[in-house]
Amino acid sequence: MGLLDNFEKGLERAVNGAFAKTFRSGLQPVEITAALKREIDTKAAVVSRDRVLVPNKFTVRMSTGDHQRMASLGPALIDELVDLVQKHAASQRFQFAGGITIALQPDPGLSEGMVQVDSQNVKGRVAWTPVLDVDGRRFPILKGRTVIGRGSEADVTLDDSGASRRHAEVQWDGSRARVRDLGSTNGTQVNGAPVKEAVLEPDSVITIGRSRIVFRVLAQADPSDTAAGRRVDPTASRDDAGGFWGPAR
Description:
Number of strands: 18
Strand content: 25-35%
Number of helices: 5
CATH class of the largest domain: Alpha Beta
Largest sheet: 6 strands, antiparallel
Number of domains: 2
CATH architecture of the largest domain: 2-Layer Sandwich
Distance between the termini: 31 Å
CATH superfamily of the largest domain: FhaA, phosphopeptide-binding domain (DUF3662)
Shape: globular
Radius of gyration: 19 Å
Strand order of the largest sheet: 8-7-17-16-13-14
Low-confidence stretches: 1-7, 14-22, 232-249
């Protein structure tokens, strides 16, 4: 099994692990992931030897019933899909013209279990959006300090007896993140290792009591960007089309 095969299996495990229990029939989240990957690979445009531009705005169409089930997951599913699109593009050294946008839409013309993806290259600035995923719930990280704990005064409240009232905080300066234990009773772990303070890389897992908290940085379209929505000519120069790889670390 090659590197690409391993990566594809990783995508399937990530999506299925997060959402498979919710779906017993009909369209599965992993099928959306596969459809997005096919769309990216099919629409990849070679601009130069070291630049391959791919779509960054996706509309995923599905039956009304499938859409209702997907929508029940809230923003966590979109976050997961954006994250996996980023990883696939990075693995192939593809580039985007701007932030990634993924919208799910019902299509009465599609039967249950079917999915279709439409895409565009849209020029725009990237808004690197840090979030904490907790049991399918998304918590945006505030610039400065975001406190995690069991108490009502925490920014991210955990229903977990193993968490202290003010257990830990995540610090975000606009490009980098750190986690710091706030003198908790049971301690804080990052990727399985106990820490007092540590740098958070994208996809780091913070463990507090029984709670598993995933730190993500999503490359989303900047809603304040006046250039957003402008389609990109794939033959444009690097200066015209922009492009990005990931947040500063």
